[in-house]
Structure formats: C-alpha cells, structure tokens
Amino acid sequence: RKEVEQDPGPFNVPEGATVAFNCTYSNSASQSFFWYRQDCRKEPKLLMSVYSSGNEDGRFTAQLNRASQYISLLIRDSKLSDSATYLCVPFTSGTYKYIFGTGTRLKVLA
Amino acid sequence: NAGVTQTPKFQVLKTGQSMTLQCAQDMNHNSMYWYRQDPGMGLRLIYYSASEGTTDKGEVPNGYNVSRLNKREFSLRLESAAPSQTSVYFCASKEKGPDTQYFGPGTRLTVL
C-alpha cells in the first residue's frame, strides 16, 4: 500500500460547485497533515494545516478521520482560480519527513 | 523577505557533466530539504538537513550530494549527471516541528 493515496482526477466542475477530495494515508503515527496547492510548473504552496479533527478557512474545509486514516478537502463555491493540483501531505513527528501524495487535479470550468 | 530562492531556474546538462543547485532562505529556518518531482509522481525527498551542520538521506539520494553551507544555504550537487536525473528540483525550508514547509520556485533540469 502506498504511504499516501489520492485520486489523480481530473475533477472537472463548473464554477460555483462544491467538490471534495479524499486522501488516505498508511502511517497511523502521522500526527499533522497539510494540504498544498500546486499550479502548473510552480512550487507547492500551503493551503491548509490540520493538527486535530479538522480545519476551515473560508471556502475550504479539511476533515481528518484518524480511525479510517483519511483526510478530505472540501471546496465550496469553486472559482476558476481554484484550478490546480492539490497535494495531501502527512507528517510524522520525529522523522523530519513529509510524505507527498501525487495530487488531485481540479479544473473549474466557466 | 525573498523567502526561499533557487538558482538556476533552468539548466541543460550532458550526461556525465556535474553541477550544483543552489538554495537559500532568509526566514532563519532550521530545516532545509531537497525534493525532486517527476510526472505522475509526488515530490520525493532527496536529502534533508534538520539543522545547520547535519544532513541526512531521504528517499532517493543516489547520485546526489548535499552541503549545508550555513543556516541560510543548502546546495545539491550532481557529480555525474544521468538522463534519469531529468526532473524539477525544489528546495524547501521550515522552522522546528510539524511546521509548514516553504518552497523555492524550482530548478528545471534536463540531462541529455
């Protein structure tokens, strides 16, 4: 089993739609989680950090389910500018290592 | 603050040539990382430096060496480039613990 698994997509959604991505992780010792967005040929940029059960920032909500070892990202009222690849990144304390998923590609259509 | 800077932005090498990728951060971060990103794959850790004076291998260290020159700078060296090292290389830094990593803009390397 891969350490981090994400549906590669692409998810094609119309503007204004709500879309959700899931990410499963295999290391039950992972304590912190990050969602990064990456635009084509650019560096990853932090979207959201999750240290407990979830986090919300405007149109973006992350939910963590430790029992099932998955974390989700919900985007409400999608904008054209949300088109990007979203990377799920678990972190295990004491390892200094962040494990990057391959990402889920989102296309928001006008 | 410039954040994390990387040079060069683009590079083309011939097989067997050597080069050093430079990375610097001005955020006074302790930890620095080198990743490579290939199509269809997540970022893979090459080397990291938990603090000044220390370096450790990551997932894919073969063919690379690193130097943590000081707290600001962390360089990646390819001694004898191979076509399999064609990739986009990202440098990142962070403070202690489970903090956010900040990435540089990347170096796009092609080895012919």
Write up this protein.
The complex is a heterodimer of chains A (110) and B (112). Chain A is built from no helices and ten strands. With 110 residues, chain A is an all-beta fold. A five-stranded antiparallel beta sheet of chain A has the order 1-3-8-7-6, with no helix packed on it. Chain A starts with a strand and ends with a strand. Chain B is mainly β. Chain B has strands spanning 4-7, 10-13, 19-25, 31-37, 44-49, 56-57, 64-68, 74-78, 87-94, 102-103, 107-111. The model of chain B has no long low-confidence stretch (mean pLDDT 93). Chain B is 0% helix and 49% strand. In chain B, a hairpin with a 7-residue loop joins strand 9 and strand 10 (102-103). Classes of the chains: A mainly beta (110), B mainly beta (112). Chains A and B meet through strand 5 of A and strand 4, strand 5 and strand 10 of B.
Care to give the gist of this entry?
Chain A has 110 residues and is mostly beta strands.
In one word, what is the shape of chain B? globular
**CA-CA gap between termini of chain B:** 36 Å
Number of strands of chain A: 10
Cα(first) to Cα(last) distance of chain A is: 37 Å
Q: Helix coverage percent of residues of chain B?
A: under 10%
Structural class of chain A: mainly beta
From the alpha carbons, calculate the radius of gyration of chain B and give it in angstroms.
Answer: 13 Å
The main sheet of chain A orders its strands as: 1-3-8-7-6
Number of helices of chain A: 0
Give the rounded overall mean pLDDT of chain B.
Answer: 93
Content of β-strand of chain B: over 45%
Low-pLDDT sequence parts of chain B: none
Helical region count of chain B?
0
Largest sheet of chain A: 5 strands, antiparallel
Mean model confidence by pLDDT of chain A = 92
Q: Helix-strand pattern of chain A, N to C?
A: EEEEEEEEEE
Helices and strands of chain B, in order, run as EEEEEEEEEEE
Strand content of chain A: over 45%
Structural class of chain B: mainly beta
Major β-sheet annotation of chain B: 7 strands, mixed
- In quaternary terms, these chains amount to heterodimer
